[in-house]
Amino acid sequence: MPFMDFQPFHITVKALIVHKGKLILMKSDEDDRPFDLDPPGGRVNQGELVFDTLKRELEEEIGLDLDNTKHTISLFEVNQRDLKEYDWEDGKTTILEIYYLITILSGEELKVYAKEESEGLVFIDIDSDLDKYTYTAKGRKEIYKRAQKILNS
Predict the structure, then answer these.
(1) Which residue, 11, 15, 10, is CA-closest to 121?
(2) CA-to-CA distance for 147 and 49, rounded, in angstroms?
(3) From first to last of its 153 residues, what are the pLDDT tens digits of the chain?
(4) Distance between CA atoms of 41 and 64, rounded to whole angstroms?
(5) 125 Cβ contact list (under 8 Å, min separation 6)
(6) Partners of 104 in beta bridges
């Protein structure tokens, strides 16, 4: 079998967190997209399991200890991102985002706050018009809308 060129992957996990009818997102702190709303999450490190990455990123970015919070969780979507959305121009890297939908049980006290990579948290009613918010990553709005549709059904 001849040697094949393999495409490198950048894999991230993202959490769409809902508590008491509100979607919890982070306001971007990046200068080139100051009003973007991002879900907490981040890159899977070499040798790290995807779910361990999710738990680590939630603790690092919003102070959420998933192991000690009553919740439901489901794999929501896997999205392949456009390289231009990440300003990567190597033309070789495939960016995959793994989205989890996490619903914090309504009786659960939730103490989250912006810790890293954010100007603050935004709590958006799941019935809100998502078109009124800014999105540099155009596909992200559609992901939020699909989650909104499921949550409202």
Answers:
(1) 15
(2) 24
(3) 555 566 677 899 999 999 999 999 998 766 666 568 889 999 999 999 999 999 999 999 999 999 999 999 999 999 887 655 555 556 667 788 999 999 999 888 888 988 867 788 999 999 999 888 877 777 888 999 999 999 988
(4) 11
(5) 21, 22, 23
(6) 19, 71
